[in-house]
Design brief:
Order of helices and strands: EHEHEHEHEHEHE
Low-confidence stretches: none
Number of helices: 6
Structural class: alpha/beta
CATH superfamily: NAD(P)-binding Rossmann-like Domain
Strand content: 15-25%
Shape: globular
Distance between the termini: 39 Å
Mean pLDDT: 92
Number of domains: 1
CATH architecture: 3-Layer(aba) Sandwich
CATH class: Alpha Beta
Length: about 240
């Protein structure tokens, strides 16, 4: 196995944790990013090291350009490289569209769109130098649905924007051995679920389902897969 280091943002719990643990099966080490859950991030790093892989925790507010760039720099200083970047951080807000404040829009757009942009831009230099890289953005299963989202408008706008960014970066970096893809979950057990009476267990995916899709996009097997939006949602909203 060649030396490869992955960075997973928002990795201290939930989907980010599952992605980090799955990638640890395939790579040499995983950098664990967190914002507030330091103890959980450290527990995850210990679990990864127990697998015989490298790991360390890094704190940053990815809504801020300087801290995003600083995160990439710190990880590269610690491990000398970032080969795989998973932009998992993505704050979710349920609120009627006509009650939204500017701060609501800013928080959701910065978390879901600006943060991945900042991190991607900062990580590209090293990937270009090595002529190999995998960037995986975590989206939303309905990101390509250009319709009404009366209760999650900022989130839907941000994830659709992230898909455009994903495909833009993919087209730009194809000659550098770098792929950029989106993995878009639907409803996930343990995630944010709507209060829908007709929601069946068969419609719910798992964190591990999504993590497996991310691992594929991050692998050598997906060398010709770029600019894709891999939806992991079963038949929900199909």
């Amino acid at each position: 196995m060649s030396l490869r280091i992955a960075l997973v943002t928002g990795a201290s719990r939930g989907l980010g944790r599952a992605i980090a643990l799955r990638l640890a099966e395939d790579v040499s080490g995983v950098a664990v990013h967190y914002l507030t859950r330091r103890d959980e991030a450290q527990e995850l790093a210990v679990a990864i090291r127990e697998k015989g892989k490298l790991s360390a925790v890094f704190r940053a507010d990815l809504t801020k350009k300087a801290q995003s760039a600083g995160l990439i720099k710190k990880v590269e200083e610690r491990f000398a490289r970032i080969d795989i970047l998973v932009n998992n951080v993505g704050p979710f807000l349920v609120k009627p569209w006509d009650q939204l404040e500017v701060a609501d829009w800013e928080r959701v757009l910065r978390g879901n769109l600006f943060g991945p942009y900042f991190c991607t831009k900062a990580a590209l230099a090293g990937m270009r130098k090595r002529k190999w890289g995998r960037i995986v953005n975590i989206g939303y299963s309905r990101a390509e649905h250009l319709g009404a989202f009366p209760t999650i408008a900022p989130y839907a706008v941000a994830k659709t924007g992230l898909l455009v960014l994903t495909r833009t970066a993919a087209a730009s970096e194809v000659g550098n051995g770098i792929t950029v893809n989106m993995v878009s979950p639907g409803l996930i057990r343990g995630g944010v679920l709507p209060h829908a009476r007709d929601l069946s267990e068969s419609q719910l995916g798992t964190f591990e389902d999504v993590a497996e899709a991310v691992a594929f996009c991050a692998s050598d097997k997906a060398a010709s897969v770029t600019g894709a939006n891999l939806i992991v949602a079963g038949t929900w909203k199909m």
